[in-house]
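Deliverable D2.4 — example input (structure tokens):
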């Protein structure tokens, strides 16, 4: 029993020494029945793409950044050039403002046609018609100054016929004035017959010279007038003259 116990102790001593030697050499004894730790191999995780940050420039270029960034340019915006106004046609001129007195002229014998027509109603009256034959607006100022042959003065005007505005004629339009030749009741004096009539036009200022005079034709037998001879202001409407 003692010999067997001694051998057992010697065996334990040898095993202990062997274990200490293995530890000092960095090696160890592996028990074939012992479970080994699982070999852990960590696979690299694929990088997740970072959401691209778009930056739009004024030129319409969009840039994306992040993992696997791709940069591209394109026409993100469309710029339409400002339209220039069409060039004025060659030789085109601005229409004249007819309301500007500088663009109008005075009606007179050089730019109008004047006629004289005797009337049966009103009795012993005559109608003067002035038609603008020019290319500009013209103004008939105040009233006609009449001169029958042999007369010493021009007849007076009936102030009750003064219009609210100057009679203005566009090209082709007509203005009118009435002439009372004699009194219907025979109360007039110094009656005479005339075969010639001259009409003088007034300018912008009362009594000023408006330009060329006119000499309308009278009936073949002439016209009779007396001291009742009177004229109206120039009128825009013929009816205003016929109702005088």
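Example output (designed residues):
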């Amino acid at each position: 029993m003692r010999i067997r116990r001694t051998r057992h102790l010697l065996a334990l001593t040898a095993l202990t020494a062997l274990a200490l030697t293995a530890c000092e050499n960095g090696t160890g004894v592996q028990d074939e029945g012992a479970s080994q730790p699982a070999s852990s191999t960590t696979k690299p995780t694929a990088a997740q793409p970072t959401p691209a940050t778009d930056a739009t420039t004024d030129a319409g270029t969009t840039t994306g950044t992040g993992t696997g960034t791709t940069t591209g340019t394109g026409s993100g915006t469309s710029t339409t050039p400002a339209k220039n106004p069409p060039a004025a046609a060659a030789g085109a001129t601005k229409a004249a403002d007819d309301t500007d007195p500088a663009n109008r002229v005075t009606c007179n014998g050089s730019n109008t046609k004047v006629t004289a027509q005797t009337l049966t109603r009103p009795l012993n009256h005559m109608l003067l018609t002035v038609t603008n034959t020019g290319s500009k607006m013209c103004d008939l100022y105040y009233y006609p100054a009449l001169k029958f042959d042999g007369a010493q003065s021009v007849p007076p005007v009936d102030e009750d016929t003064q219009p609210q505005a100057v009679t203005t004629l566009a090209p082709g339009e007509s203005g009118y004035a009435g002439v009372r030749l004699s009194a219907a009741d025979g109360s007039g004096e110094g009656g005479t017959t005339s075969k010639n009539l001259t009409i003088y036009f007034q300018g912008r200022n009362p009594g000023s010279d408006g330009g060329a005079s006119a000499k309308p034709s009278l009936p073949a037998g002439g016209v009779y007038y007396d001291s009742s001879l009177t004229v109206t202001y120039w009128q825009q409407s013929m009816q205003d003259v016929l109702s005088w």
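The longest strand covers residues 138-148.
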